[in-house]
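In this supplementary section we document a worked example of the pipeline. Step one takes a protein sequence of length 217 as its only input; no multiple sequence alignment statistics are reported here. Step two produces a three-dimensional model, which step three serialises into C-alpha cells for compact storage. The input and output of this example are shown verbatim.
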Amino acid sequence: MLILPVHQTVVLETPKTGSLALRAMLAPYTVPQSDKAPRHIGHDAFRRNFAPDLVMGFGRLPQTVAVVRAPLERMQSWYRYRRRPQLKGLPASTLGVSFEGFMLAYLEGGRPEMANVGRQDRFVGWDGVHARVDHLFDYAQLSLLEQFFSALTGDALTLPERNKTPKRVRADYTISAEVLERFTTDNSAELAMYGAVAAAGHLMRPGSGAKFSSWAH
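The serialised model returned by step three reads:
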C-alpha cells in the first residue's frame, strides 16, 4: 500500500502486477509510512484498518488505485516466479511441478504454499458490476497508468523495470482443456472483472469523483 498524501491517493498493490516498479515511480510522492504498511493489502482490509486514520488526516477518504492482470497470465507469472533456483527445496517452489499440477493444486482448494494465489476480484472488492477501488488499470495497458499519475502529480512519469523473473527461469505453461475450463468456471468473477477493466483500460468506480473523470479512458 502506497500513500500519496499531497494527492490524497492510496495505491493498493495487487501482487504480480508490477507493484515494485510502481512503488519506484511514485517514491518521490509517498510518505515513509508507505514503506511500513502491508504491501499487498486488499480494499476491504484497507477500509477497515487504515481508512479511518487517513480520513482523520485528509478530511475525506482518499481515492484508491489498483492494477489488475489477465488471470491466467497472472497464474503463469506466479508459477514461473516460484521456479527460481533460490526457492529450490522450499514449500513455495514449483520446481519439479508441471503447470497443470500447479493449477490443479490451486483449484483443489487446499492451497499448498506453492499454489497459494489470491483472487483479484476479492482484492479490489468486485461485486459483479463494480469494484470498490476507485481506479482500476489494466496491466497490459500501463501507459494509461503512467498518464494518470503524470496528470495527478504534474510530472512526466514512466514506470521502470523492477522484480522481473530472470529470463533463465524457463516454464512450460501447457494445461489440458479440462483444467482450463475448470479454472475459467471457478474464477468466472475474476475473469469478468478483468474483462471489464481490459475493455476500458482505466475503469472508474461510479461516483469516484468528477475531477478525475477527464483522465479515464
